[in-house]
Structure formats: C-alpha cells, structure tokens
User: Fold these one by one.
Assistant:
Number 1:
Amino acid sequence: MTLRTNGRARSTSRSTRGRPGGRRKSLIGWLFVVPALAVYGLFVLTPLTQTIRYSLYRWDGVGPATWVGLGNYRTVLRDPDLVGTVTNSLRLVVFFSLVPVTLGVLAANIIHRVARGRLGTIARTVLFLPQVIPLVAAGIIWGWLLSLSGLVNQLLDAVGLDGLTRAWLGDFDWALPAVGMIGVWVLLGFCTVLLLTGMSKIDVTLYEAARIDGAGWWAELRAITLPGLRYEIGVCLTVTMIAALAAFDIVYVSTGGGPGNATAVPGIQIYILAFLERQVGLASALAVIVMLLVLVIILPIQRLTRRGAR
C-alpha cells in the first residue's frame, strides 16, 4: 500500500512538472531567484575566485604576475609574524564569541525571568545600543576611554587602584585583551536580544513543571533553556566567531595592530601586504587561509545546531 501510494505521488509530481502551469510557476520562481544569484556571483563568487587565483602568483598589483604555485601559502605558514596574526584572531574568539554568548545567555535569562515590561525593554535597548554604533566610532570612543588619562584609569584612581592604571591599548600584555573587551561590549547586545527571542519560543509549561518538581534557576537553565536555545546559540557563535576571525575596523582604529604585533590580526596584515607593501599574492594567500579557517570552525557548529534543532 505504501509503495503504491509513493509511486502514485511520484507520478503525480512528474505530471505536475510536465504541465504548462507547472513549468510557468518554475519559470516565475527562477525569475525571482536569478537576480539574487547574479548579484551573489558578481560580488561574492567572482572576487573569491580572483583571490584564489591571485594567491598562486607573485604580483605587485600593477606589473606582470609570476606563477609561484603554493609558494605564497608556504610563506604564510612559515612566517612567524603572519602565523602570529592568525593566533591573535583565535585568541580574540574568546572575547568576541565565547564571552558574549555566555554573558548573553545569563543576561537574557535574567531579563526573561525578572525584567519584563518596560524594564525589559529598557534593558534590551541599552544592551543592543552598541550594535548600532559604527565600529569605527566604537574604536575611537574606547581609544579615549582606555588611554592613560582616560575614564577607565580615572575610575581606578578614584577607588584607590591606581597601581593598576596603564595605557591599556599600548601595553604589550594587555592590548589584545583590551581590544577583546571592546568586542564584548559591541557583541553582547546582539547575543542577548537573539537569545531572548529564542526564549520566548520555549513552552512556558516546561518551566512551570520544573518549578513544581522543585527545580531551581540553574536546573531550569541547564535542562530547559539551553537545549531550547541550541539553534540561537549556534547562530550567535557563527556570527561572533566570524567577527573575531575577520576583525579589522576596531583593531585598525584602536591600535592599528600595535604595539609591535601584539594586536595584529589577519585583516590588518592583509591590508598592509596588499596596499602598502604591494604583495597582492601573499595577501590573497593569507585571506584564503583565513577563509578556510572560518569554514573549519563554523561548519561543525552549523551541523551540530541543525541536528539539535530537528
């Protein structure tokens, strides 16, 4: 019976596709899709293909290019400074991704449980406000706040912790964590609002049943909230990890990659190699390696979250 039904359904779908009306609907669908595909191919796939091609040549961007094969990739992987930029971007993942997502879960849980109504709206607005500020402006603002005479050091002086004051963005040990804290400030609101939206979809009766059984807030968070937010957490991790690995604006404005190479990230180094040192092939190779690194990190996260959301 099942086989006959499936066969009948397949024959029906074939007959539908063969009808003039079905072909017309398919054509109309493609007419809507083709412009988007054309734009995507022109502005994404074409530059990506060109970047991969450039990475196989030694080229200054003007004169003739020389074929070097995988030579640029070997240079990137053997140069300690270039490898160090990738290492710095991986360290920024902790600040740009893990910290905002963790704090976002806690902040969203508190707002969802306690701060409802107008108070919840104010909390969401305040947390999300940094997301609408241009990253260049955020870098400039935090450059002032973290300077030697900035507000952060003034507050430390006021509470008697003047021994901790320093030029945060000019210190070799603290410059990268300071840039990371700027990323936390920018991305926390995005994670919080997205997770709050996910919490509103969780069945309230699950919390009521857990409270009847005597579960505390931690047990509710671990057994109900986190499993229910699997997909939203995956989106947060994806967006914030890409922001960390592709960081440029905040780092360029706040530190320029300094002091020394303490905050140098691939985005800064690609800019320097391509536009200042005119090593387009080497810059392209570094960009391709960063792209592959993003795929290696992001694809498993996407697979796990999609599997859990089924």
Note: The longest helix spans residues 20-54.
Number 2:
Amino acid sequence: MENWDEIRTAFQVARLGTVSGAAEVLGVHHATVIRHIDALEKRLGTRLFQRHTRGYTPTEAGRDLLTVAQTTEEQFAQLASRIKGHGETVQGEFILTSVAGLSGLLVPVLAEFQRQHPAVIVRLLTDMRIFRLDYGEAHVAIRAGAAPEEPDNVVQPLIRIRYGLYASKKYIETYGKPESEHDFAGHRFVIAESEGSRAAFFRWLRDKVSNDQLTFRSTEPAAWDAALEEGVGIGFLPAWEASTRSDLVEVLAPRPEWDSPLWIVTHVDLHRTRKVQAFVGLLKEKARSWPQCAG
C-alpha cells in the first residue's frame, strides 16, 4: 500500500463506525477522513463501507481490512513498548567508534561497562573515515583534533593525549640518540603515510626533517608501534603507552603543542538515553585516572 495514513483512517472508521469519531481520534478534519476512505476504495477498486444515516458499516472487504489493520496496530504498539523499554534500560547493542590507537584505554572501560550491564553487546569500531552519528552508525564517538562542528551533535571534551618522541633500544644502539631536534640529521623516522595528517606532532616532524628521512610510512597506527619496536626509526607514541614499554627510550619528552585533544561526540537524539549516559558517565570517571594524559 502506498499510503498508510489511508489505512489507519479506514481502521478507525471501521472500529468506531462514524467519520466524526475517527476524525476526533486521529486529530484531523472530517473531510480528510472522507477523502482518505474515497481514495483507498478507488485504489482497491471495491467498497469498504456501506454508508447510511447512522454511520459507516464495513463490507466484507472492509472487515478483512479491519482484521489486518488491527493486528498491525497491535504489533506497532508492542514494538513501541519494546523500543521504549530499550531506551529506559541498558541492554542490547552499544556501538562505540573511535580513532585508532586508543583500545588500550577504551577496552577496560567497555569491559567495566559490560560488567555493570551484562545485557549489553559491545561493538568497538575504528576506521579512517568518520562514522555518521546522524545515520545511527554509532551511539558514541571518540574523536581527536579540533572540536567537531556538526550541528546535531553534542560535543564534550574528554582528555588530551600527550605524545612524545621515542625510539627502541635497538635503534639507539645502531644510530645513537639525538639530544634535540637539532641533532636529527642522519636519523630515520616513522610517520603517517598521509601528508595531510591532522596530528600536530606529525606536522611538526615534517617541518623538522627532510622527506628522505621519513623512511617508514603507514596508514595503520599499529604499524608505527611495530616499526618502533623493530628499530627502523624514531616515532611518536602516546606517553601513556610508552610508559608501559621497557624496550623504548624517550628521545624528546611530550610537549603541549603535540597534545591531541579527545572529544566525546553523541547525537542529540540519543544523548539523553540511559544507555549513552551510563557509558559517557563511566568513561569520564575512568579517564580521570588515565596515566600520562592531560586533563
């Protein structure tokens, strides 16, 4: 059927028996009710009602329609009840999208979220593209860099990730350790593949070294970490991650201009739901104790 409004109108007429009663329930003018009935009968090519002074009586076709429409209305009512229930309880699927490289911080939060709400199914998605919250691709997004500006999103600051420049002990044994950026000549570096990387520390590095010193490039953050471990070059890592690695040497300590601000982004339609509020509240609480991060 092309127009469910007409079917809903016919259902109310069949249920109540009068045009005026249906109009009152639907909140429309009685002329709209008559127009819907006439259009539906014309489309179906049959009479749905017998008109008389007391009102409208369904024909056999009308009674068939009433049966189907009543079942459909009940199913929609049940669906609405389930949807409302999902909105009031923390259960079902929860989708978090994030910039890559934060799983060491986010997974413990998600694990605690599931311990508190066992009926939740967690999906953590990372990708180079930005997920569309207005399309329902995620409940919450963690984004880095400048504050997102989409008009229908609620944006809250989370924390600033501090970045330093590191090399493995293997690299230092082979190439030595530069004492400052003035000693970068002759050294090799690990960097993001894209020259348009939005990370402030990568832009800084490209300004400080020649292009042929950027000897290992990748779009995958995990590859930067692996390259540092293999001793192929010097590269940036979050200070919290580097602090857990005994195989790394700090080449340059974190600087404020290298910080990467993180933002919690939610869509206005989901922001106040219990599920989203429960996760965001827990995330903020846990982030206060994250090591090597600036508030």
Note: The chain has three domains: 4-84, 92-159+260-294, 163-258.
Number 3:
Amino acid sequence: MKMRANITTILLLVSLLAVVISSVVGGNDKKNGGLRENFYGKSCKSLEKIVRSETEKKVDADKTLAPKLLRLHYHDCFVRKVHYMCVCVDPVNGDNTTEKNAVPNRSLAGFEVIDDIKEALEKQCPNTNVSCADILALSARDAVSVLAKKSLWKVLTGRRDGIVTRANEASRDLPSPGSNFTTLLTLFGRFGLDKTDLVALSGAHTIGVTHCPLVFRRLYNFTGKGDTDPALAPAFANELKKTCPPPVAVPATTVDMDRRSALTFDGNYFSGLIKKRGVFTSDAALLTDPASAHLVNKFSSDKKFMDAFAISMVKMGAIGVLTGDEGEIRNNCRAINN
C-alpha cells in the first residue's frame, strides 16, 4: 500500500509539473497573440535567412526602402485592431474602398520588396505557406537593421493574412501628423500600447521623409491667421519654409523627418525634438506631457531609444494577429485568395 501511495504521489507530481510547463509555454504564446519563435522551423528552416538576405540586398541598393518598409508594417498593424496584411491588397475592378486606397496609405511604398521575398521563399521552400504578414514583419525588422547596423528586435511568427480590407477603417485608426497628445495616447491605447510605446514608436521618424503639404499649415497658417506654429524653433521653421515655399507646397517635394540623419537609425530624432525641430505637430505634441517629455529626453540616448523601440515593436507586431485557422495564407500578397 505504501509503495502504491508513493507511485500515486509521483504521478500526481509529474502531472502537476506538466500542467505548469504547459501553462508557461501556452501563456507565452497567448501573451504574444499566439505567435512564437521559429514557427516555420520544420517547413522552412532557412526562412529568416532568405528574408534577411533579400531585404538587405534591396536596402543596400536603396536605403530609402528601410523607412518605407517600416511604415508599411506600422500601417498594417494599426488598422481594425488586427495585424492582417491587407494594406498590400490591390483594388479590383476600380474598387477604391480597399485599405490601400485610404488617404493615409496612398503614399506607402515597398510593396515590390514583399512580392520578391514571397517569390524567393516559394523557390527555396515550395508550398510552405508563409504568410504575407510574417514576411512584412520580418522584412521591416531586417530593413531597419541595415540602417542601425545591428538587429534590434526578435520577430515572432505564425501570423495569417486577413480577408477584409476597408479604406474607411484605415482613415479612422491611423494617427494623423496633426494629432495632439491626447489623441495620440487614445489611439495607441486602443491597441494596448502605453505612453512609453507611443514615444518609442514615434522614434521611427528618425528615418524617412514626408511631403510639403503635410507641414504646410504649421508653417503658414497654423491657427488660420497666416501664422507659424510657435512650437517650431524659428530658425528651423525658416529652413522648412525654404524647402516648402508658398503659395502652394509642391506635393512631390520631400522633407526629411530627422533633418540631420534621415538614413541613420538613432536617437537623433529625440535630440531634434528637444530643440523644437520636430517636423509634425504630432512630434511636438510629445513635449506637451511631462512624462512623455521625460521619455523624449531619455531616448535621445541611442541605446535607451533602441532598447525601448525593440520592446514596443514586439508589442505592436502582436496586435490582434490572426493565427491558427483564422484568415488565410495569401498566394499573392496583393490579392485575397479566390
């Protein structure tokens, strides 16, 4: 009887240990929306290497692709509370209601990079069924890594592609360059992102460009009285005015969002904000809240910014992901499967 009791006790302990291990592993998947490391480990061991190689080749040839791919990833994550890669879907038969046609998305670029990676993966790992959403998440990380000269964050995989694409939802969910701090915090909060995430992810503006029409009002008619936004340093405002002269800013004319290092991923964007050199109203807004302003000062350190950015990118990349049997694995990233 004593031996039987001991065996029963051991079996109970083993069962309890199994439950604990399952809870830890399952909890990690749940925390990250069902995503995990090395999701394609068995079906395509070289997947991340292929994505990295293709992305680096493209970005080495054209550094401006890095901010374009990062922005593409950001716009994909911030719509419908679902990370589902519908920002790449082309309109069919003149339909202008797709997400790609939303006003904030009309200047997006880098789609051809995703197409080429999808093709390269199919050649190396036929019928692996790699989602376009995972390809975008990986290529955005790898593109930024070229400019940062190191890999900044881990990308968990296992996303599925969505089958719903609506322009009005992109217009509703994406923060505008003219947003104030309260609006920004509210929009980020809807997706489970906090104040630190807001400031850290705004640091994406350390690379890339915008266009004159998006800064024109700040320069020439901020309150409707022909004035300039007082949150801009006068010398910086004059610099922008030379690039974007009146009466109408030429839409094709670009403005570096980080005027001193637009193709270097670093904390210089935050150093510029401290000097009132933020290009957008939404940039300057980060200084209007004491806690946010403190983070701006903190993130002017390259290391502190990159560490925080990495954490926030992992959080953003897990927003409302489709996994398991949800959605689909798209054959062509520009078209929902028939």
Note: Confidence is low (pLDDT under 50) at residues 1-30.
Number 4:
Amino acid sequence: MFKDSFKYYKSRNPFPDLKNVIDIDSTDYTKVRPIEDFLLKYENRYDLGLRPTKDWKIYELKCNLGLIFIQNPFTAEGQQYWITKCLKDYPKKPNKLNLDEHKLLNDNTSWWEECFKNSDGNVSLLTKLRWTTLGYHHDWNTKHYSENSKSILPSELCNLTTFLANVLNYTGFNAEAIIINYYRMNSTLAGHTDHSEVNIEAPLFSISFGQNAIFLIGGLTQEEPATPIYLRSGDIVVMSKTSRHCYHGIPKILPTLVKPWMSNDSMQNKLHSEVDSEDWSIASNYISEARININVRQVLKPGQIRLL
C-alpha cells in the first residue's frame, strides 16, 4: 500500500530501514534495466550544463513502465548554474510563489533580495519559500490551469527539457508549466498523481539538486505497492507511459555526503562566466541544507494553442 510505505519512510523515530531503497549508484539489475539505445547519443550540450550524452547512464524501472531515471548528467558548473537560477531568478515576479498569499514580500523586492541582499537579511523568510510556478500557473485550490494565469517561461529551461526529450525520443514535447519545489531537511511531498494537464500523455520531467531524497513511486491507486528510489543531486526522473498516471511522493530528505556541485571536473565549461562567485557563495550555503526540484510538464495537446 502506498500510504503505508510513505508513512514508513517518513518516520523519524524509529528511523526506517533503507535496505530496500533502490540505489542507482549500486545498481540492482533485477529492478532496473539500463537503456543504452537512445537518440542524440553523441551530442555535447555544455551550454546547458550537461556532460556529453555518450557518458550518460539511463535506466527504466522494471516494475513501472515508463519511469526513466537519468543518473546525474550535469557538470559541476552546470549544477551551480541551475541551483543559482532556481534561487536568484525564478522566485520573482511575474512568477508566483507560495509567499504571495500571505504578502510576505514587497511588490518591488524579490525573495533573493529580501533574504540575501538587504542589509539586515530576512532569515525567517529564507526557510519559508516552498514553491514557485512558471508558465501556466498551477492553481493549488482548483487543481486547474487558466489562460488568464500564466507567465513567460525562461528559454534556458525550455531548451534544457526539449533536449532531454529529444535524447529520449519524446518527439514534440513542449515545456508549458514548471513548478519548482524548495525542500528543507524536514520537508515531505505527500503522495499524489499529476492529472491537471489537458495532455497527460506527454512525459513529465523532474530534476533534483542539493540534498538526497527518497522518491516513492506506486501504482494507479493507493492500494498498490510502492517502490522507493534514492534521488541525488543532478538526477532526473522522467514519468511517461503508465508511470505518468501513478501515485508518487517524497517521504524523506536525507543529507548527502557527496556534493557533485562542488567537484572539480575537467569538462568544457561555457556556464562558468554566467555564475557570479558571490551569488554562488550564497546559493551553495543554501543548498547545503536544502533540496530543489524542477518539475516540467506539457499542458496542451499537440496542435492545441490555448486552454479552452
């Protein structure tokens, strides 16, 4: 049962036994199968912070058709770039934040400026950021999207997910709605399905940065068993086919001992000049005790240009 598994892995006292959590770093091929035949296998996209695709490791969960796992394809500089973007640029107007409802920000001040650039620094606001939405804004009350509630998507995020979709041969994917979740070490994400989009056949891309998490994927109902998987910084989960309709959630955030955003690799770097050293110093302190998840989805059906 999904609920039982979620409750088990969420527990703090007693702490759950993690022996059954799938760890791609020590791959158990009885539970996942490697995908070696993918398109654009010899592409280099350093401009997106990615390693050459020939070096990627891609797996599919055997018990959940269409649940694809890309093991950290990002360079260290790429992780720095996307983490900083998620903190400095994306939680600002005209995008929507969970802070808006309680008017915790001035109209002329961004979350980044309020927390890190003002002389006194709003420490209490630092941990209150939970989500920001871009593109079509998901209404958490109605669970619907609206043509009257949307903002322009950042081109770099669209380019990133378009490239990921092309690598996996998901032709025609268009990023139209993005939710960025910000987790503290005691955060969870309750089990749910993503069904607000008109197009629920298009894949959903979920990109993790920062601290580790246990990702729980179940079946079409909460009565079906769930499978736990470790997510580490840079890992990408793609929910497609049957898995696109399945219950999933995050019952636990775990501290990481390995910090791939800090490693010194020799990959060609075209993003380094775009990450200000002072900004990265701030962002690296934040991510040392937090997790960021970029969730990208297509809203409209092929050929559809607006919501009805």
Note: The chain is about 20% helix and 20% strand.
